[in-house]
Design a protein that fits this description.
heterodimer; A: alpha+beta; Four Helix Bundle (Hemerythrin (Met), subunit A); Alpha-Beta Plaits; 18 helices; 44% helix; globular; B: mainly beta; OB fold (Dihydrolipoamide Acetyltransferase, E2P); seven-stranded mixed β-sheet; 5 helices
Chain lengths: 647, 161
Amino acid sequence: MHDELLNDFLEESIDLIEKVKSNLANWQHLDNKVEAIDNIYRWVHTIKGGCAIFEYKETTRIAHELETFLGSLKERVDSISLSDLKKIDEGIMAIESTFNENSGIENSVGISTIEEMSSQSGTSFYFETHFFQDWMAGSESIAKDLHNDGFRFFEIKLPTPICEKILAKLGEYEVFTLDTYEKDGNSFCLCSINLKSNPLFEEKANLIIKHYEGHWCNLIEEKETATEVTPIAKSVPNTVQNQEVLRVPLATVNSILDHIWELFLVRNQMAHLFKENKNIFKDHLSFIQQFESIDNVIERNIHELESKTMSLRLNPIKRIFDRMGKVVKEYCNQSNKEIEFVTSGEGIDLDKKVLDQLNEPLIHLIRNAIDHGVEKSDERIRAGKPAQGRVELSAQLQGNEVSIVISDDGKGIDGNKILESARKKTLDVSHISTEKDALDLIFAPGFSTAEQVTDVSGRGVGMDAVRKSIQELGGSISIDTAIGKGTKFKINLPLTMSVSKCLIVDIRGLEYAFSTKSIVAVEKISMNQLKKNGADLFYEFNGEMIPCFNVGEILPDYRQEPDLPTTYTHVCVTSVNGQTVSFCVDEILQTMNVVMKPLPKIIERHKYIAGVSILPGGNPIFLLNIQECLTGTINQKRGEFHGKRIA
Amino acid sequence: MASASLKELFTPSIASEDFEETEESIIGLSFKYGDKHYCTSITNVKEIIDFPHIIPLPVASDKTLGVFNLRGNIIPVLDPEEHLIKIQKLHRHKASAVFSRMKLRLIVFEVAPDAAVAFPVYEVGKCEVTQEEATSEQGFIRINGIPHEKFDINVFVGGNL
């Protein structure tokens, strides 16, 4: 009963918070600001009352302070400033964050939907020109992506006969043409230019616009171009506000997804059964055709259903970016550093599960960037850098993946220093042959170059956990650094965590699956095609000899007759830590889409196991993290584990 | 054994035609493993099934033999060797075959919401336990004159959930 009441209260509070946010976002357009501030005051008061009942002491305190502040505003509604609105927003965000910590109420699709709409509303398109409405109808996402990448748009008028020639010439100035519209012997061209990569382009673009009677087009509201995080919510157009939002608990969406995946598995089993017994129907061709046709329809519909349901679980990455803005502010205060925090690509949506698990790694990387990366102002000035450091967090879509980059313009990481530090800590560095290997040591458990432990970071735990978290999400992390210039961490993540295309293989008598994402090539070869150097195997791929590993060496042997000699094998080519390598498996059985299920809680987590799924035949199959398996194989071959302490 | 009384633990979630709960008795589940008899609460028992095809783990595990598919749910099978009996160590990959020969069955326990585990046993059946024995602090319960060791699945999985 208590839980029910608590849930009701939290639901209601979240609704009230959304109402406050909406009022703040539309403040300038509100006709009756007195009424609005009264409403906000009342809503906050309601939240405070509920918090007190449920003994949310901290939230009660924040709500009380906010209520007091709102009370003072009621006396001077006409003079409410942007800074006052900011304070209200910060108070509301603080209340919301305590709710999130206390209850997990954030697991609600409704909230994400509202935020998503809010986020989308900030990037709504409008035109000063009517020529390119058709183009925009089908190209919003392109414009949005271009905009996120720093492109700005303008329209110019060119005489049609020489239009192509001029556009080709403009191309040399990095002006891209998106569309053209012909009218009365003139061509109106929608062009874009990247102002982010080179601010001087703006001057060029202005010259071009002036020369060809053009004007800038606000395909995207300019306020969206501000990349710095501001606590004030983006404005929500009335059309969006009027949309009804249904609040659905995340658990319900997940349950629907479970049913869809179950349906998916049953369909796979049905198709498998039919395939196995196809010969029974060999005299009934029309039945076979009809069955296969219906099966295709079922498969297509299941995929569509899954895709639509998955989209309900998507949350804007902006949520986590905003949170990081606060993290930066907090750590800047702690470390007495001046840092400009810049974000881009907030419009991208990610699976909520991915977002949740991304929180800690991002905090860690940003914390490290502030504490170890960006220098103090005086040091920066001495190095000829601006006094204010810069930490950038950006997201970019790349196919079915999102690439998140955390970069700083700090001192960079010295590979030699890493190596030296590793030696001091008696870590095994005998296998380090390149700077990249040395840099990779920062991901080793217990490694830290920080000379002193600060409140911010330097406790030597975390980077291994960062990599582990990313890998658990099916992603990867890489580092790029230049001494004196800065460091860049690049995280690649799948957009969703559901169906993934896998290669089903047999290794030592047991079937395994692994994602085809990182597999470059697969080939069946005779054993003598593998070249030997002592115990090391090599495979010739595209004219180059690449190492070939036997992943079976780290997996248990379930073969009936383990010692049976084989004359052929299958090699798969992939890359590990940037190096192209191959590995052999006993058989490649098939490729198929599998539904990744989480490992049962009781099973201990292991880096080699990415998840588990069910084959069409009904048997479970383990999904291997092939990158980790290969790293394990390589380390085993070296007779030691990466980063292991020497006794 | 968990601190809760057996009366609490032995709620009749499995309908019994053979036994009926009375004020004097409650229903439990008895099974055998190795040469020992055990008795457990039926509170968490979801079902008892024939030994299915088990897919072993790709990595060594002290606690889990492998997993199987129970109507679309992946259920881990606990390794009783580690918990109950000290028999000669077998190669883990042969465990499934060995169990099959022993005509084992699996008790599927629901140990947490959305978390089930299976435990391989044999000679499993319902039993009647007197209130007196159920509430006793002794580590065993007498059923048909045979002392059965009290078995609590939560003890095995508690730390892993």
